Amino acid sequence: MPAANAQRGGRPDRGLSDTLHEHMIEVDSVHKAFGRIRAVRGVSFDLAPGKVTGLLGPNGAGKSTTIRMIAGSVPPDRGGIRVFGHDTIDQGEESRRRLGYLPESAPLYPEMTPLEYLHFRGRLYGMDTKGRRAAAAAVLERCHLNEVARRRIGTLSKGTKQRVGLAGALLHNPPALILDEPTNGLDPTQIHEARRFIRELGLGRIVLISSHILTEIERMCDRVLVMAGGELKADATPRDLAARSIAGATYVVQIRRDKPGDDERALRLLRNLPFVQDLQPNTADRSTLISGWSVWVVTAKDGAPDLRESIAQGCMQQGLLVRELRKETASLEKAFLKLVEGTEETPAVAAQTIKAREESTL
Amino acid sequence: MKRARAIAARELASYFRTPAGWVIVALYLFLGGLFFMLWTLVPGKPASMRDLFMLSGWLLLPVAPAITMRLIADEIRAGTMEGLLTSPVGAAAIVAGKFMGACAFLTIMSLPTLVYVGVLFAHASPMPDLGPILAGYLCLALLAGLYLSIGVAASCMTSNATLAFMLTFFAILGLLLAPGLMGSRLLPAWGTGVIEAVAPMPRIGDFARGVIALSNVVYFLSITGIFLLAAVSIVEWRRWR
Lesser CB count within 10 Å: N end or C end of chain B? Predict the structure, then answer.
């Protein structure tokens, strides 16, 4: 809309050639508010082909609003989005033509069959009859829908409907795919298959997936964008992001405490080991307290060698029985929790507001 | 236009795949048959469908809202509107497609009424005059277009199909009853002018008599166009708010 467009701030030239811009999706300082609720606040990122990018965040983080702005169903209040060089507002039809979009819960027409639905989508994208037939056959095969191609969509399971939605998004072979919660409603086998499929789709394409499920993002994506409170909190590979969760290595030791003074001896031993920065009893594990085992979390200093040998050796020398000794690995979950901790929950209300507005009545 | 045709074809097919579509067909043909039996097929009366066409304004009153109530309201409720709005289809094509689908459905529904013409030609003496019958069918088409355009606009406003039905029904009822207010002391002079300009009933009478006045055709097309433009604006507003 011109009003929204007029308010958009232009991103300064970052030295990229026009050709490069034409192969990217650029989200530039976008803001979106619904009434007094600021759903998205100054989010910027670029998406290049050949990578699967995950948009991760708790429910109501502003993920769906961001995705809808890219897909062209919600306009940004400020900032701008360009899809392969086409502004989503000024050149909306051009930008939408280049996207395959699967909305959350894949809304479909229950009275149609998957084959009819695909032909309908093909006609909306201006495909001719021959092209539609070939493309529909290909995506039905690819999404394993041949068996249900002529059954009413209303009679299909949720997971199959989701695959029909995905087939619809893929039909016109778009250079960019935007998938909002793509594995919603799939059973574990289908989820496994969908992950493999989405990774394949990422070859040579832009794929943006929104999810609040960490394992989903960890297994499918080359890059993670973490959103919380309407803001972009992190932009990194899953491994880099997970590595941020722990500054120094962490070790968990479970030691027998059958004699009085065992806890004190363990405390003294672990605290005095070289390279130990911090030592905390793990009081969260109540079962060990009852059963006579104490759990200690040892944090090593940055650059410390592996402490497992010295911990085991020290315990042996002190006559302490060790049941478990493990080095904690970096986890995306921890990194995620750190990032979203303490963020506002208002966008959750915003998501509801969008839904309510879509269904708004007089 | 290709995209509008795709939407129209999907819409038309969906009418015949849902029980609601067949209920509408049954209602229309029942009312049409009843009116034909009561006002046209009367012994001793001249063989003319004039009365039937005069009543077409009332015949379509419950039918048009029933046809249009789901058109866009259901897409909004079910979330499929997002699929349309994020495809390379403009608001005008969406509205045109929905309108064309509804018109096509009403046209197919009306085909059995040609039996009435056949009955008149087979049994009436003297033979009926074909001119007023053709003019009457033209009037029916224009009136249906007007009613359906009101329904399309109403259906864009809400995700509740029942509310869309009510809005359309009362808007059409208002148009039909408005001439009754003319001459009332409650109505200012300019109000009478407005009613004369927008009320369809007097124009339907002209068509039923076999008179095809250009002004009447322009009237129907203009009002239909205004409601369709309003529908396009509402869809645009939905996309960009």
Answer: N
